[in-house]
Design goal:
Rossmann fold, alpha/beta, about 25% strand, 5-stranded parallel β-sheet, 8-stranded mixed β-sheet, about 400 residues
């Protein structure tokens, strides 16, 4: 049975809907939750009713929508407190910038914010807003505050927006939010699995101020670590230098050079069942890094390079090797070179992407060709968060499909 089919029978979901054009997607989410057997109670902000009518949600859930904090029909029995005690999960989707701010401030001047303050149930928010609002420092601080309090933040995604902008701020797709709910309430398919992920570039010093590096942003590796954690895995992320925050619920170890990454990975392999090598590790490093800044005197500068340790091959060659997934960034002959890398290094799965001319590095989107012994699949271009979720689904299927004799770890 797939995660999308996993029942939520008798689970009680309080679905908070705040104002924004993405509110229409909440109707699809409510329908999906109800279809899995969950009891769904929708609470709307007044602003949300400007975008979607309450009767829509009532028809989908079979329950009258709650809007007002002071409701004579319910307050005789302190209805808002009883409602706060009712759910197994509070999910606010979409969560507007204003709603995130109110929750971060601990406001309790409308029904939805009051319920979030009064409930003991886990709370998740699915942000949706203009890309500039999402990038604003105030929103970032509010999200960080909520995460520090244990609120789960699902999304947002990047892409075209209703206002005409392009960037992060799109509501996570209802199907993906449904899976997030199922993982949280039913337990992920990788619960109990120790996973190790590498991400980002490495920097190989030429002198104290210069280095050899590459264009990797680390976004794909960080998305994979996030997706693994969402499935319940115990994730350690070994990261090169990136401008990204550590994913929530993931242990992060920062390194700089390929040798440092190699040592950090090998030191953490004990008990590891899954290794995903998404980092863009430098193949070579300068033989001798200068102690002082190299001055521009000669017309030519020759630098002797030596090969760095091959982290992926070293892990795959261990007698107690975990299920090993490699990445391959290619500019041509994608499938041929990637498949050769999978076979040569002896890894269980390879995920290859085309780079160059705006593809792969630094982009919010990516596409992957994934191969394993006996199969392959092409995942089309999409937001790296969604792509990582799809990749982790494939990894999980292959990991669980291994016979006990092949997977004693």
């Amino acid at each position: 049975m797939s995660m999308a089919d996993a029942p939520l029978t008798d689970k009680r979901i309080l679905l908070g809907v705040s104002g924004g054009i993405a509110a229409y997607k909440a109707a699809e989410l409510a329908r999906g939750l109800a279809a899995t057997g969950a009891q769904v109670q929708v609470v709307m902000t007044q602003a949300a009713t400007e975008f979607v009518g309450p009767l829509t949600f009532q028809a989908l859930t079979g329950r009258p929508v709650r809007i007002a904090l002071f409701d004579a029909a319910h307050e005789a029995a302190m209805g808002h407190i009883e409602l706060a005690r009712w759910p197994d999960l509070v999910l606010v989707a979409p969560a507007s910038a204003n709603t995130l701010a109110r929750l971060a401030q601990g406001r309790a001047d409308d029904l939805l914010s009051t319920l979030c303050l009064a409930t003991a149930a886990p709370i998740a928010v699915a942000p949706a807003m203009n890309q500039q609002m999402w990038r604003n420092a105030a929103t970032a601080e509010n999200v960080a505050t909520l995460v520090a309090r244990g609120v789960r933040v699902w999304g947002p995604e990047s892409g075209d927006q209703a206002c005409g902008d392009v960037g992060p701020g799109r509501l996570r797709e209802p199907e993906d939010l449904l899976q997030d709910v199922q993982r949280l309430l039913l337990g992920g398919r990788l619960t109990g699995v120790s996973a190790l992920v590498t991400a980002g570039p490495t920097r190989e010093p030429l002198d104290p101020v210069r280095y050899l590096g590459n264009r990797s942003s680390g976004k794909m590796g960080y998305a994979v670590a996030t997706a693994l954690a969402a499935e319940g895995a115990d994730v350690t992320l070994v990261s090169g230098p990136v401008a990204l925050s550590a994913p929530h619920g993931v242990r992060r170890v920062m390194v700089e050079t390929a040798q440092e990454m190699h040592d950090a990975v090998l030191a953490r392999l004990t008990g590891c069942r899954l290794f995903v090598a998404a980092a863009a590790v430098a193949d070579y490093r300068p033989l001798d890094a200068a102690d002082q800044k190299i001055k521009k005197h000669a017309d030519e500068l020759q630098v002797e390079l030596i090969k760095n340790p091959d982290i992926l091959a070293a892990v795959a060659a261990r007698p107690d090797a975990p299920f090993t997934v490699g990445f391959a960034a290619e500019t041509e002959n994608l499938a041929r070179y990637a498949e050769a890398k999978r076979r040569t290094k002896g890894v269980d799965m390879i995920a290859a992407n085309q780079v160059g001319a705006g593809l792969g590095f630094d982009s919010d989107d990516n596409a992957l060709w994934i191969s394993w012994d006996g199969g392959d699949v092409q995942l089309p271009s999409m937001d790296k968060g969604r792509l990582a979720t799809r990749l982790v689904q494939l990894i999980t299927e292959r990991l669980h499909a291994q016979a006990p004799a092949e997977n004693p770890r």
